[in-house]
Specification:
Structural class: alpha+beta
Number of strands: 14
Oligomer: single chain
Strand content: 5-15%
Distance between the termini: 39 Å
Length: about 500
């Protein structure tokens, strides 16, 4: 399981090109003559694509295809200030099929829409190759994902990201193993044997070799040590709330995992490794052990169990324990808390981490990046979950940082902040204000100047998590003195509009 959709059940249908029905395909495929950089070319490509989709919308309107017009109009990825838009890869690659009695014009729209997306996908992957050739690896990797949002069947992009064509489906190696063992992913119950699906949907559960009613199994799994176990490609989750809660948690964590790997590819892969992917190389194998997660039935049980390990556990809403390599949650908690602690786990375990991470200096960024990831939002709220967004000018962490700096005049200069290790920061009486500032600085490093410090931020995270950092590392990587970055941060925050009520 590695995306928000898990239904690779239907065979791939190969289509013949629609003759004479598509407008602008050659225009989409051609490289923009005026583009000087990859970013410029991507912007021009996106603009032309939006124009072609707008023409298709007008055609839908003229042919009374209201639903099809709505789908087409909503398809382009959104753009918003201080926002990252992250396309997700969906392994359900089959086109929806029109009903037998559907109007002929609806089928024609489907063909037009598909062909436009395929052409855009091909242009995007060509651009991804160019970005890789120019050593813009983060951008190249993102464009490969955007390719598959447009054309889920794009063979080169699929192979590059580790998928294999198995019985007509693009699957990861993990999914191939599951398929070969006759298992299917159920959105409510997780991985099941195909023969078990009907009985699970009827309220039965298979427990230690026998079938039980769901309520009987629940009584047997009331203790966390005997709780349900949900295994996905990257996570091993134990919960005593319910199987359904475990699967819901797994789905969110796997989505975060995909998004994190895309955004921070240069944290766990070297540039030469990414370059080899565009030349037909394979993704290096990840950690052999799944990320471990425990989810308690409720907050009270979470507090009672963990207070022995962490006396201040009642102050937390989720906890990652590095020494145990375990993330702890409780059912029903807010997604932002989940994303915060799960981000700590990803940075700590996807590549080798030093036990000295943040102990001597630079601890602010460990918390700052986790606070930033709290802003993750899925889709557009209108049924399209083929992308996620991060950031946003109205994000509460950014707005709080704005208030701290501009209204309360609170700011710890970077020359001082970067010298604070974990104990010094956590024992500081200004800890709440420092957390707000850490969040704001992370937004700044990701978004200012269209991301001019974004790669430096990732390199900074590598240095901190491998304990190869010094208090001066961020200045060295950005090429700016701390006093210059202090001034730039203030200007950045001053440009953030105040949100009503803050």
């Amino acid at each position: 399981m590695n995306s928000s959709h898990h239904a690779p059940q239907n065979q791939i249908v190969r289509r013949a090109p629609l003759r004479g029905a598509i407008i602008g395909l050659a225009l989409l495929a051609a490289a923009p003559a005026s583009a000087e950089t990859v970013e410029d070319e991507h912007a021009e490509l996106t603009t032309r694509y939006a124009a072609e989709l707008a023409k298709l919308c007008a055609w839908c309107d003229a042919n009374d295809l209201a639903d099809e017009a709505k789908t087409t109009r909503r398809w382009p990825l959104p753009h918003a200030p201080l926002t990252l838009v992250v396309p997700l890869v969906d392994e359900a690659v089959d086109e929806p099929q029109e009903a037998d009695d559907a109007p002929a014009k609806a089928a024609e729209w489907r063909a037009r829409f598909t062909e436009l997306r395929q052409a855009q996908g091909e242009a995007l992957f060509s651009l991804a190759r160019r970005a890789a050739g120019e050593k813009q690896m983060t951008l190249a990797y993102r464009l490969a994902h955007e390719t598959l949002r447009e054309d889920p069947r794009h063979e080169d992009a699929r192979k590059m990201l580790g998928y294999k064509l198995h019985e007509g489906h693009w699957l990861t190696s993990f999914e191939v193993q599951k398929t070969q063992s006759k298992q299917v992913w159920h959105p409510t119950f997780g991985w099941l044997q195909r023969t078990q699906v009907e009985r699970y949907e009827a309220g039965e559960r298979f427990y230690k070799g026998r079938w039980l009613k769901a309520e009987d199994e629940a009584r047997l799994r009331a203790d966390i040590d005997h709780g349900w176990v949900v295994d996905t490609e990257h996570y091993h989750i134990r919960t005593n709330h319910s199987l359904e809660e475990g699967v819901r948690l797994a789905t969110r964590l796997e989505r975060l995992h995909q998004l994190w790997r895309q955004l921070f590819v240069r944290f766990y892969l070297a540039d030469e490794q990414i370059a080899r992917l565009f030349k037909g190389g394979a993704l290096p194998k990840g950690p052999a052990k799944r990320l471990q997660v425990t989810c308690f039935r409720n907050r009270d049980e979470y507090n009672r169990t963990l207070i022995v390990k962490q006396p201040k556990i009642a102050m937390t809403t989720g906890y990652y324990w590095p020494d145990l390599r375990m993330a702890y949650f409780f059912a029903g908690q807010d997604d932002s808390n989940l994303y915060h602690e799960a981000t700590h786990q990803l940075f700590s375990e996807v590549r080798a981490m030093s036990p000295k991470t943040g102990l001597a200096a630079n601890f602010w960024i460990v918390e700052g990046i986790a606070c930033y990831m709290e802003s993750l939002t899925v889709g557009n709220g209108q049924g399209d979950d083929s992308f996620c967004t991060l950031g946003g000018a109205d994000a509460i962490r950014l707005q709080n940082a704005r208030v701290r700096l501009l209204d309360h005049d609170f700011y710890v200069p970077l020359n001082e902040l970067t010298r604070l290790g974990m104990d010094a920061l956590q024992d500081d009486e200004r800890i709440k204000q420092i957390y707000s500032q850490a969040s704001g600085l992370t937004y700044f490093l990701i978004h200012v100047g269209d991301g001019r410090y974004r790669d430096a931020l990732v390199a900074y995270l590598v240095a901190v998590y491998t304990a190869r950092d010094t208090p001066g590392t961020l200045a060295e990587l950005t090429g700016r003195s701390y006093s210059e970055l202090d001034r730039e941060y203030r200007a950045f925050v001053q440009g953030v509009k105040k949100t009503d009520g803050r």
